Amino acid sequence: GGCFDSMVTIDGVLDWPLKDKKGCWVGLNPWPWPKDLEIKPLADRPVPFAFHGAIGGGNREALVNQLRLSAGLQVTARGCVSKVGQPGGAIPYGDYCRKLTDIRIGLNCAWSGTEKCLHVKGRVLEYGFAGCCLLENSESWAKEWFSAGDDYIEYDDAEDAAQQVNWYLSHLDHAQEIADNLRRKVNEKYSA
């Protein structure tokens, strides 16, 4: 102890070793969201169901591959953020955000990189800012910040996720209500 005045964990991990210690915070997203993006209604968006991010391996890769086949999931790997504009690097953040505004339902995989725990990815807020309808794992810590069924759709496994996606894509009015709720809550509570 005593090395730092403050500590911050990102991606919404609430059960970290410094929980409830003075000067320790949990952050959800370190990125500033572009303020000039048009937020289209879900019905006007060209991408029905997508995931933007690193696929990794294990559970996340298996889920993504199953949903590609069963629900038409489109996947875009974001690339390495530290190499923007370089081969293998991420597209500029503003361009990434614009791509998110084309998605009706956005998949989030709440596993950490090691898959040893679940947490809240910054992607949850990004989908909210973009006005997407969020599909989130039922065990995610997102439930500490948002309400399942009101602010996002929960899924238990790939089969359940595919069923949820297919139902909400055929009932876009319900998906739009959920997307609007998430966007409102994100803008009220988590914008800089």
Describe the protein's architecture and organization.
- The chain is of the alpha/beta class.
- Helix content is 32%, strand content 15%.
- It is built from 5 helices and 7 strands; from the N terminus they run βββαβαβαββαα.
- Strand 3, helix 1 and strand 4 form a beta-alpha-beta unit.
- Helix 1 packs parallel to helix 4.
- It starts with 6 loop residues before the first strand and ends with a helix.
What's the SSE pattern?
Answer: EEEHEHEHEEHH
Strand order, largest beta sheet = 4-3-5-6-7
**Helix content class:** 25-40%
Instruction: Give the tally of β-strands.
Output: 7
What is the average of the pLDDT values?
82
Taking the alpha carbons of the first and last residues, their distance comes to 30 Å
* Total helical elements: 5
Which value, in Å, is the CA radius of gyration? Answer: 16 Å
User: Major sheet: size, sense and barrel closure?
Assistant: 5 strands, parallel
Query: What overall form do the CA principal axes indicate?
Result: globular
SSE class: alpha/beta
Poorly predicted segments: none
Q: Beta fraction of the residues?
A: 5-15%
